[in-house]
Amino acid sequence: MDHYTLSKTDLQRLYKDIYSKADKIIEPILGAMFLFGLLIAFFYDTWLIAIGIGSLNMLAYVITKKMLPESNLYQYILSVISAIFAAQYIYQMHGMAEMHFWVFISSTLLIIYQNWRLQLPLILMVYLHHGLFAYLQYSGYSEVYFTQLAYMDLTAFLFHALLATGVCGISAIWGYTTSKRTLQDALNIKTLSALQEELRQNACKMDELNTHLIQVNEEVHLKNERLHASEEELRQINENLNALVAHRTQALLKQNQKLLQHAYINAHKVRAPLARILGLVHLFDYETEWKENEKILIDHLNLSARELDKILKEVSLNLEMAEFKE
């Protein structure tokens, strides 16, 4: 099995989709945070802070995103202005403890970008704001609001900072874990898509192979039918030839039988006159007063008659043997 990885293009496409969905959630919340600043301005008449700082925060986010659309710098700006909004609310409400919870809310919201590093600007700004405002408030500066407590010792401050750090740390771990899971899911989807494509290609090859096999089977079937037809034709020809040979053989046997009978009859017909000739020749042997030339003729006639008789006997014997073989 091939080892699949996410390419740079895959990662860019993946994070672009994540950021786009996150922006659609965050931007309305960011607008609500600006409106929240205006809402709490009624309590202590902090309109200048609400409008001034809130507007600067919104402008910083919008300008950064518009000027650097391919960069994620605007997310770090978002992390910073989230901490500034929390500091703004704390100041507007004169150090109300509940306004400190905005740090935790902001930290949780940043998880949606699946980038643990976004927690760093937030917590650093919280350190800076809390440390500076706590120092100024407890140093006697008026209108510097960090807490409504008359006094906060170093231990309480450190616990405050530690808890804020813990929340940001948990959010960072959560964002990191979510990012890893998203990458793994994307890799699984890519692997699954690649395997599905491979299966589809294999299925296409199998279909082509099946189509080829079907064609081959059809060709083989057609050839078998032709071969069967040829065999049937040859069988019919053989049957016709056998019938013809049998018919011709019977005809030849009948003709041969007729010839044998005819030869046998003719041999017997010839034998009777030949026997009479032999008898006459035998009678000539009793006559003594023959001239020399007549004697020679009679001897030749006797010899020829005996040779002819011998031939007829051989013919008769051969005819009898032929009948016996049949």
Automatic annotation (TrEMBL):
The keyword Coiled coil applies. The keyword Nucleus does not apply. Keywords: Coiled coil, Membrane, Transmembrane, Transmembrane helix. The chain crosses the membrane at residues 29-61, 73-91, 97-113, 120-138, 158-177. Residues 192-247 form a coiled coil. This is HAMP domain-containing histidine kinase.
